[in-house]
Amino acid sequence: MALDAIATPTLVEEIPFQGKTLFCITGYDTDASTAIEIKAAPGAGKAIYITSIILGSDDADAHPHLQDEDDNVLIGPLMSAVEGPVLHHDFKHPLKLVSNKALELKAAAGGNVFVHVEGAIAVG
Fold first, then answer.
1. Count of domains for the chain
2. I need a labelling partner for 40 at 20 to 30 A (CA). Which of 22, 24, 32, 56 fits?
3. What whole-number distance in Å separates Cα of residue 10 and Cα of residue 32?
4. CB within 8 A of 89, min separation 6: which ones?
5. Is residue 16 part of a domain?
6. What angle do CA 106, 109, 114 make, to 5 degrees?
C-alpha cells in the first residue's frame, strides 16, 4: 500500500519582515463541504504565511482541511470522529501560500468544523 500525497506546501525560513501584517482567525461552521474563504487573497506581490493552526471537528464524516483558492490542500484532512480530535501545529518555519491566493476551510461532508489560524501577510 502506498501513501497518496495530497499536499506539497512550501516551508520558508522566516516571514519577510518588511511590510508584514500579522493576523489571527478563529471560526466555526456547521457545513464546510463547500469551501469557506477564511482569509482573502492579499493582493499582487503578497502572500499568506501560516505560523500556527488548530483544526478540528466533532463529526465523524467531516474530515476538515485547509486549502488555497485553487483547491491545493495545505494541511489535512483531519480524520475526525464524534469524540472531536484536534490537530494543533506551530510551524518552526512558516507555511507559505502561493502569492495572492486566499486561504479556505473545506470539509468532506457537512458537520461541525472549527479552525484557528495565525500568520502574516507579507511580500511573497
1. 1
2. 56
3. 24
4. 52, 53, 75
5. no
6. 50
Number of CB atoms found within 10 A of residue 51's CB: 19
- Assign 85 a pLDDT band (cuts: 50, 70, 90): confident
What is the domain range of residue 112?
24-123
Residue 85 lies in a domain: yes
Any domain includes 1: no
> Residue 99 and residue 102: Cα distance in Å, rounded?
9
Entry pTM: 0.85
- Quick one: average pLDDT of 50-76? 90
Cα R_g (the chain), whole angstroms: 14
Tell how far CA 87 is from the center of its chain. 11
CATH code, domain with 72: 2.60.120
How many whole angstroms separate alpha carbon 29 and alpha carbon 47? 25
Class of residue 95 by CB neighbours under 10 A (exposed 0-12, middle 13-18, buried 19+): buried
- Residue 32 — pLDDT band, cuts 50, 70, 90? confident
> Nearest CA to 43 among 104, 117, 105, 101?
101
